[in-house]
Amino acid sequence: MNELQTPPPPEPPKSSTRLSRFNEKYSEPSQALLLVLKALGVGGIIAVAVVLVSSLNFQPRSPKPSASNSLEDTGYTGVAADVLTNQTFDCAPRNEHEWYRTDRTFVIDPKDADTMYVNVEYKGPFKSTDGGKTWGQIAKGLKVYARSDDKTKGCYGEYPVIRIDPADNKHLILGMSGGGGGFLDATTPNSQTGGVYQSVNGGASWKLMINNKMNIYVNDAVFDPVTRGTVYYGTASNPASYQEADQNKLFVTKGLIYQTLDNGKNWTELPTGIGERTGAVRVFVNPKDPKEIMAPTYSAVRQSADGTGTGISTGKDTSAVPQLGILHSTNGGQSWSQVQLPGNLPIMAGFTSPTMFGHQFYVPMSQSGTPVAYVTLDGGKTFKQTKYLDVVAYDPFDPSGNHAVAYSTVGGTPTRPGLNLWETRDGGLTWAELGTLPAEIKDLNDAKVRPSLITWHPTDLNTIYMSGAGGHIWKSSDLGKTWTTLLDYTKLPK
Known about the structure:
Layout: H1 21-25, H2 31-40, E1 83-89, E2 107-108, E3 116-120, E4 124-128, E5 136-137, E6 144-147, E7 154-155, E8 161-165, E9 168-175, E10 196-199, E11 207-208, E12 220-223, E13 231-234, E14 257-260, E15 268-270, E16 278-280, E17 284-285, E18 293-299, E19 326-329, E20 337-339, E21 347-352, E22 360-364, E23 373-376, E24 384-386, E25 391-394, E26 404-407, E27 421-424, E28 432-434, E29 451-456, E30 464-468, E31 472-476, E32 484-487
Parallel strand pairs: 1-6
Antiparallel strand pairs: 2-3, 3-4, 4-5, 6-7, 8-9, 9-10, 10-11, 12-13, 13-14, 14-15, 16-18, 17-18, 18-19, 19-20, 21-22, 22-23, 23-24, 25-26, 26-27, 27-28, 29-30, 30-31, 31-32
C-alpha cells in the first residue's frame, strides 16, 4: 500500500542504510500479506498498489507566474547536483519482490493518448510520445543518490505516484517519497532526496515542490480536479528508517496530509490527527465538490527484527494499534472525521469512482488471515463485504459509477488459480470473470510480473492498460480479451 521508497541499499554505508518503500512497511518482504497467502495455500508476496499505494503555458491561479515561468525555490537549496554521490547504491533488485516496480506511476495524457509517463524502479521516470513504442528518461532536476557502478548516474527508487494536472496536461507532479520519514537536510546524507516534485513542461525538467520543514515521505499526491493550484499529498507519522535514526522523532505534528493552494509556494499541514505510525494510504478529492476529501489510513507498530527499531513493521503488529480508518473532510481539510471499516481494520488500498465519488472500494489488512474487501455506495455511510480484489479501476466513461474492472493478486484454488480480470456492473457488490491476462502472467506468485495498476484509455472505452513489476505496461484494445506488451525494463537504457 502504499508506503515506502528510496533506492534500496547494497551494504550499509557506515550509519546510513535506506530501505525500499516496500520493505519500510513490511519486512521479509511482506509478512502481513503472507498470512493471507498462507491461509490460501499460496506462496509469495502481494504488492498492493496503495501502504498496505503533463510546457511552458502553465498558469497557476495565484500568484501569477514570473515572466520566465520558472518555479520558485521553496527553501531547500543545500544540494545543487541532481545525482548525489555522498551515498551510492547497487542499483539492481535485491530480490524478486523489488523487481523494477512501477506502482501507480503509469499515466496517460488526457489530451494526447500517445503521450505516457511511468517510473520504473532503479531505472527512473520515462516518457513516451508514440503510444509506448519508444521511451526516453525524464529525470532532469530530480535529486537522487548515485549508482555504485557509475557515480554519474542516479539510482531511482520505487516511487508511489505520477499525476497529470487535469487543467494543464504539461503540469505533472511526482511523489519521490523518503525513507520512512524525514526533513530535507543538506548536512544529513540520508535526508537529501524525497518529497514531491513538479514539472511545468511535460517532464522535460522538475523542481522540488515542498520545503525543508515538511515530511519527505509520500504515499500519494493528487491535484484538486477543480481548483487550479491546489495539490494534496499524503504522508505518515513514522520515524526515519535508516540505521541509527531516532525512533522517537516524527516529522508531522498534527496531520497526515499537506495542502497547497498556490502550486507549492505555501503549504498547510492539515489537522487530520497523526495516529500511531499511521500513513495516509491514498488521498481522494471529490470532483463534484472539491471541499470533500477522503483518505484511507494504515497504522502499525514498528520495530526491527533485532528489537532496536529502524521503522520496520513486521506486518503482524496492527491488531493492537488504534486505527484512524478513512479520514473525511467536507470543508477542504479544515476539520476531519473518521469513518471505520467493519472491524476497524487497517486499510492497505482504496479506490473511488471518478464519476460517482461515493462509490468506493477498500482493501483492509485482515486479522484472520482470510482476505477481505469492502465496498460502499454511499461514501462510507454503509459498507458491504465483497470479493477480494486489490487492483481496481472504475470506468471513467460510466456516469453511474457502477462499472469497474479489477484484478486480484491472491489466487483462488489449485484448479481455479484466478488468472483473469474481473468486472462489476453494480458498483462492486458482485463480480464476474472478464477476459484474460497478459501472456507474461502465468503464476500469481511471480512477483516479477505482478500488476499494480489498471488504467483506462482517456477516450476509448474499450481500451485498458495494466502496469506493474518488471517495468511492464500492457495494453488491451478489447477490454481484456487480448493484450500487447508496450514496455518491460529490458527495453530501457542500462
